[in-house]
Amino acid sequence: MSDYTVIGKRTAMVDGPGKVTGLGKYTDDLVLPGMLVGKILRSPHPHARILRIETEQARAVPGVKAVLTGQDVSTQYGILPVGRDETVLAVGRVRYVGEGVAAVAATSEKAAFEALQRIQVYYEPLPAFFDARASMQSQDLLIQEDCPRNVKKEYHHHFGNVDEGFARAHVIRQEHFYCAQVTHAAMEPHSTLAKFEDGRLTVWSSTQTPHYLHRTLSSVLKLPMSQIRVIKPLVGGAFGGKDEPLPPEIIAAGLALHAGQPVKITCSREEVFYLHRGRPATHIDMKIGVTQDGKITAVEQTAIQDGGAFCSYGVVTILYSGALLAALYDIENIKYDVYRVLTNKPPSGAMRGHGTVNTRYAFETVLEMLAEEIGMDPAEMRLRNTLRPNTRTVNDLRVTSYGFPECIRKVVEASGWKGKWGKLPRGRGIGIGASHYVSGAGNSIIRADLPHSTVILKVDMDGGVTIFSGTSEIGQGSDTMLVQIVAETLGLPIEKIRIVSADSDLTPVDLGSYSSRVTFMAGNAALRAAQEVKAQLLKAAANELKAQPDQLELKDEAIFVKDDPSRNISYQGAVPLALALSGGTLIGKGSYAPPPEARGGKFKGAGVGPSPAYSYSAQVAEVSVDMETGQVKVEDIWVAHDCGRALNPLTVEGQIEGSVSMGLGQVLQEETLLKNGLVMNPGLLEYKTPGSLDSPRIHSFIVESVDPEGPFGAKECGEGSLGAVIPAVTNAIHDATGAWIRELPVTPEKILKALAEKEGRRWPR
Amino acid sequence: MMAPFEYHRPRHLEDALQILARNGRQIKILAGGTDLVISMKQGLFEPEVVLDVKGLRDLAFIRYQPGAGLSIGALATITQVATSDVLIRHFPVLAQAAATVSGPNLRNMGTVGGNLCLDTRCYWYNQSYSWRVSCGFCLKKDGTVCHVAPGGKLCWAVYSGDLAPALMTLRAELKIAGPRGERRVLIESFYVNEGRAKFDLRPDEILTEVFVPPASADCFGSYQKFRIRGSVDYPLAGVAVVAKKGPDGRIHDVRAALTAVNPAPQLVPGVNSVFGQQGAHADLMEEVVRLALRSARPLKTSASTMEYRRHMLAVMLRRALSALLGG
User: Fold this and answer.
1) How many CB atoms are located within 10 Å of the residue A445 CB?
2) pTM listed for this prediction
């Protein structure tokens, strides 16, 4: 065990008290004098030309201070440089039900609603596409003019030689899977407050990516970045739903500019479903070959993702679905054809486990089928296909620390797998699944050759330390993580550390909370900043103690000579000396950029998939299936997650449990239902996220592979455990019933149908 | 966004009735608010006057006397019903049904009267104004067509309360106060099997009390509810069954009622006479299932499919009956 004093200790979140007492401020809690209510008029059509918009009557409503249409803010933007295909309000054409068409700011909600109803929009409806495969067949009717066959982007990658690989296989299995569209369902709906005062725009917003929002506000509203300040208040969950600049954020700012008064837009839950950016409905054809002794020889995947009307993160989503096939198991021959297809639906985007989750379900299911076919224990089969630490995969991903085998062994042992698999009575079953994820993307979205994270520390006269970081605390614990790293490095209790995060006027640039990058990247930046401060403290103490800095140790608020601890000075005593030595301010800065080896190969599309480190997860689920009703009860889930090192085991376990809950939702019951492009269940009553009563017993195990480059050896823990939940449960359902389910969510009715099919019956009779 | 309204919170029933009488159809009664407030935000109701009856504290009681029967005030909360020792002991089917209503906080807010007078529900109806503009209005609100059964003139929005079927099996009567005094109706004749008509309650009347006759006490009872989550969800199908057991072990006075499969909760007709016949229990049970399925017409008004909801109805009925026969 380590001899750390803060790292590895169960540490309560530093922003917890405000959340518990209610004193903490989320964006919608903020109120400014003269603040207006912003509301958005949304398209009732899935696809239509906008012939004319008349806003005169709306402007005449008493209390209305500003009205915007697409013409007023027509600059195209998008999170990806290759996907700048959105405008904040529709220009010329609407492409999904719920797309913004006009916006108003008014002194009351009532006036704003009345104004919306008085905006006259004349539409000419167009034929629409609601299914990705049908959309791809279209010759002449295009959702975006420059996207033939309505394909936004496609990649066809081939590494090794799959033909040779399949030729070597003893058994090959190819299956088709369908995964329904699901959404993040964060507790806090999106909210933005903007004010324009003295020529400067200030925006408070519920965002994972304040820096990208900052850039986008600048480019769409034509203001220099130096005239814009972006602040992220407390955020009530995000899961990818707030990790790109979204229309209401820019509209609120645009309305504030026009009205000359602060404007707040808080989305209704229904509007959150129109913003979407969740996991796309996906068709997957998965083909895997294995030898008689269970070694995977080749994998071939075709994935068609229903991207909705705009690109969003789509290019990344399809690439992750392919590239990361290589980073979990040792596979020499990999081919994937992946398509991001436009449809007339709200845009899909990034969601926890981005791009990997549906692919993992398909892959782990086919693997299970193959294990059954060759008569091998599926846990054993997975162990036979592990990578080795410090390898380069066939598609040029660098894998360093690799605790996956230990993850498998842990859950196999803890669950009593060997006594249960294939041996439980009918209706009871056990299944295994595995997944992984990046600890941040090796390449930044903005393609700038700059650090991905920078942290500044300032030490006060009394020895208190303030961290300035652009990271976005969204409930995952990033503020606490940074405080822990600085406290550990400077030998201080966490009470002495304060953090100011995500305020562009005060904090250095950080790319944001997405792709599980913050612990690895901002954590390393904080570590380096703290080391810089420590060096200055040691230098000052060395003068005082008549020693060399490298002879000194800083621990428990004291600096002492390692060989003779009686020669010491308190931390408190060293601070003024260091302040004097450094010219009155004791500051440190640190930054992080992924090393060149962790930035991928040279081929087109190689930029997505590389990461400085990968997390790993293995899971076993035990389920009961009511054979008469098809209802599934997940009894227990054993999860082992390799997070490198658990800086804060409390939050690591929280992330594991959250991943399990989210995965259970997707596998058993969640689905955004659309009829003719209209979301049928745009609320949390009819969109079925699981509740506490639906939770199984979750047994979490932390595997610490101690990554050579992670801060104190840490890697990601927020996303890697989601993907394994789904196949662990579906494989357990198979063990319980003998039925294979190739479609998510696995509703009881689908199980009854599959059972009936297997037994040559019809369901319903 | 809610349209503005005039708000009244009287302390006496007579005052409440006067306010109702003065305001005709432009008034809505608010009790726990767990159904009405959401619907008002969605623009389904835009009453000029809201009559908050939570001030009528006298109506929040549960009283039971063996031989005299059970009385429950319309403002008793669902939590009161679910946790009452008397109900758990003497009217288990009702306590069970109450315990399945939504989640704990909504059971604390929701009332017996509100649950019995729950608006009928449908995917195409319980949506925001702008959603309904996109879809096209339906005949339950502002429109002329039914999106569930196009071409039909009836509304199929489904009744989704849990208490009503339990009370039906207990032969409950409802007390309704109005300008012409109090009237009592059998609960099964209170409901109207059409999504808009819903129940027999005039705009100037208030449901004040539920009465269960003494003969219904101490029945074996079971309430089974199909829903997707363990909490919060409305039923997608629900079955209440009660029976009495004679000293000879034979069961009699069997009654079964269904919810969430029709615009109204309904007693399954003829159940008791089935159990009056000779025959193996399994066969009699199948006959009851057949009768129940004949009266259940779930359409595509909510999650899950019609076929599966009918399937679950049958399974739940079998399970409830088996539990009674075995118990």
Assistant:
1) 22
2) 0.97
